[in-house]
Amino acid sequence: MRLIDLTLLVVVAGGLGVQAADVAARAEPAGLATTIAALTAPRLAGRGSATAGERDAAALVAAWFAEAGLAPAGPDESGWFQAFALPGAAEGDSSLNVLGCVPGCGDLEDRWIVVGAHLDHLGRVDPRGKGVPAPGEYYPGAGDNASGVAVLRHVAVEAVATRQDPGARRSLLVCAFGAEEVGLLGSAWFAANPPVPPGQVDAMVNLDAVGKLGAGPLHVAGLETCPLLPDLIAAAAGDLPVRSQDPSLVRSDHASFLAHGIPALFLFTGAYPEMNSTADSLGAVDLDGLARVAEVAVRLVDGLRRASGRFTFVAPPESAPLLDAGNRQTWLGTVPDFEATSGSGYVVGDVIAGGPAALAGLRAGDVLRQLGGAEVAGLAGFTEALRRHDPGDIVEIRVERDGRLLGFFVTLGDRSQRPR
Asked: Count of CB atoms within 10 A of residue 41's CB?
């Protein structure tokens, strides 16, 4: 694939209804909505990995980075993109990461913080479709993950605006990753091929599915991967409640950095019913809550850049083994299809209205393949995996639906909540 030249970036942005004046979005609902509306526009057709829609989205993000004043940090001729091939893709077909940076200063300028969000989503309902899709014919991905890119854009703007502030601070890499939905491929490629020496990267912040804060809390995974992180997130969050989650149970781009021994935080706002559906549009996003997340992210990144301590990596613990019969109170809110669960996976026969599965967007007919990182083979395997967790835990559940493997964040419930 021929990469897009920087001179075309603003043209593409303008063609999607985003003018230069819109680029300096602040942590206000209207500015965040502008970013999300641009990324969920029908012209981008759901930003499927290695599609024209994903490439146009990458060009749009690069235009925003350039207008914000970031310096390009990619290896291609434009300086903004890092291309990588998808396994099994046609020859020359690539996905893209978009990379920009803000230089640090003082005795910390040779150290780096990475802040990232994935720009891709699931694309068209029918991948063979042509032209601009109508509503219902593509997955907009407003919460997953136009919301994260909107916050990333705000972090970039604020980092540039404060670069003349006094004091030593680390340099910042701002990354919009491609091909997250098909296996964290963009972040994995970046972590294996960083534009700076990997030993100089101190920590990473991942923004994924941050559009449904409501009354909170803000969920944060990875706090245990470095002793400095709990105090830094507490200072950044202020009076916003924070709930710590096990980073091994939720699958997103932070995992690519943990695998390389880099402390990483994952900010997200939990399960929401529209996830991985054609209803995940701008109207499904809590914009006021998203503005609060954006403000937390700015403070967190600034705190990471200025922290004077050493970022010692602590490998996250493995999931606890199943003891006795596990927690029998943990509840997902599904009814098995007993005639279909004899094969691989757990087939969902029905979901209980108002239960954890329904609230997260699972449907009857979904074939559950993984729960909290554990492979699921049939009803017995599902029961064992479920009992490893407690009510209130947030886990990622991977299901097969219409030939696609989809991931959902699910807040597990208690059996006492089950309708009588």
From this structure: 20
Domain ranges of the chain: 6-306, 330-417
- Measured in degrees and rounded to the nearest 5, phi and psi for residue 18 equal -115, 115
Report the alpha-carbon distance of residue 301 to residue 161 in Å, rounded: 14
Q: How many CA atoms lie within 13 A of 401 on its CB side?
A: 19
Q: What is the pLDDT of residues 190-234, one digit of tens each?
A: 999 999 998 999 999 999 999 999 988 999 999 999 999 999 999
Tell me which DSSP letter residue 20 carries. G
Report the run of H or E that residue 265 belongs to, with start and end: strand 264-268
Burial 143-172 (b: 16+ CB within 10 A, else e): bbbbbbbbbbbbbbbbbbeeeeeeeebbbb
User: Is it true that 6-306 and 330-417 share their CATH fold?
Assistant: no
Residue located via tokens 């709990």: 230
Give the distance, in angstroms, between the CA of residue 45 and the centroid of all CA atoms in the same chain. Answer: 19
Residues 137-185 have pLDDT tens digits of 999 999 999 999 999 999 999 999 998 888 999 999 999 999 999 889 9
CATH number for region 330-417:
2.30.42.10
Residue in this structure with the two tokens 């994260």, named with its chain if needed = 148
Q: Which residues partner with 203 through β-bridges?
A: 113
pLDDT in tens, 125-144: 998 899 999 999 999 999 99
CA nearest neighbour of 6 among 79, 100, 91: 79
**Phi–psi pair at 174, nearest 5 degrees:** -110, 120
Residue 81, phi then psi, degrees to nearest 5: -110, 150
The model's pTM: 0.80
CATH of domain 6-306: 3.40.630.10
Pairing of strands 218-221, 264-268: antiparallel
Q: How far apart are CA 125 and CA 121, in angstroms?
A: 11
Token pair of 138 as six digits: 């593509």
Burial annotation 392-401 (CB, 10 A radius, 16+ → b, else e): ebbbbbbbbe
Gap between the Cα atoms of 233 and 241, Å rounded: 11
